[in-house]
Amino acid sequence: MSDKLDLFDYTFHVSKRDIQEALESTRTFYKKMGNPRRLGVEKTATKVNPFGQVEVVSIPHNIRSMLWRLRDEGMVEFDGEFFSLREEYRDYHTADEIDDSFKEACYTALENGAVFYDLLSLRTTFSISMHTDPKEEKSASDVLETRLNFIAKELGVNHFKKNPKAAGHKMNIFSRYSKKTREKVVDAIRQRTTPESVSHYLKTHGLCKGEFVYNTKAPWINHDKVSFLDIQTLTPTQAKCIWLAETRDEKVIEALLNYCGAMMAPKPDINCVIYDGEEKMYNKETDLKKTFEELTSFQEFIEQLEAMDEPQQLLEGVV
After folding, report:
1. Number of domains in the chain
2. 274 has which bridge partners?
3. Which residues sit opposite 272 in a β-bridge?
4. What is the pLDDT of residues 47-104, one digit of tens each?
5. Which residues are CB-neighbours of 43 under 8 A, at least 6 positions away?
6. Range 218-226 contact pairs with CB under 8 angstroms and sequence separation of 24 or more
7. Is 103 left (phi over 0), alpha (psi -120 to 50) or beta?
8. Please, which residues bridge with residue 79 across strands?
9. In a domain, 108, yes or no
């Protein structure tokens, strides 16, 4: 027999109280299922719980039998196969509910041997199974990210030192640059004491390997937009920025940077490029096709500033 609604699932005689009770049951069930876009009316449904486990959930008979009535009352959208609780009747998780559940799950995981990186998969499954009201200023993602940042700061860089897997997968991108470039970046990070300043430095300073080698004859590439230089920017997570800002240990900084991913550049945010330990100014609009030797040095930049009556515009965005 089909799992779709049949004659025996339909309730013929109902009161206003029956309808209200069915609505409350539907709201509770829909919240439990994560307030999805829609649900099938099969007698069972699957959901991913906050711990990433797939659960088979039975749709209560009192909901299935009342779907046509709820549709007639304008409370659900229902076509016989799928139903969706209308937005105004949904019961969303509050920010505090999400934070409390996520916090408990994270600390339980850590107590059972998990490291910080493992909590990222918890964040993913929580973001699937819990949602705040779309009208709320704080989304579920905001709540989860705030809690993760708090935990990263609470665990501190010692958590990474004890178990480097806390930072995720080791990319070793940073290690491919020259020793002078690595020393330059590590020294700059050492002088920064806030996650924001660490993030800003790495976002605005491109690391250069030399000339960008690619297929210059490929007709599908817009060569006018390809940089002459091979430039990348490191992309640390917020947790890595927190730990980089905490430590003054050069070896730990370099180790953390080797766990960072990278993006091909140049991007508009970049205002400096480092090649073999030497740092020069960079402007994507004017320097895209320049060699490293043709870029403006800091000394030249200072001389330009001194020669200007109003240097504010030239200084804008420069660290």
Report:
1. 3
2. 207, 279
3. 205, 281
4. 666 666 667 777 888 888 899 999 999 999 999 888 999 999 999 999 999 999 999 9
5. 3, 58, 59, 64
6. 225/288
7. alpha
8. none
9. yes
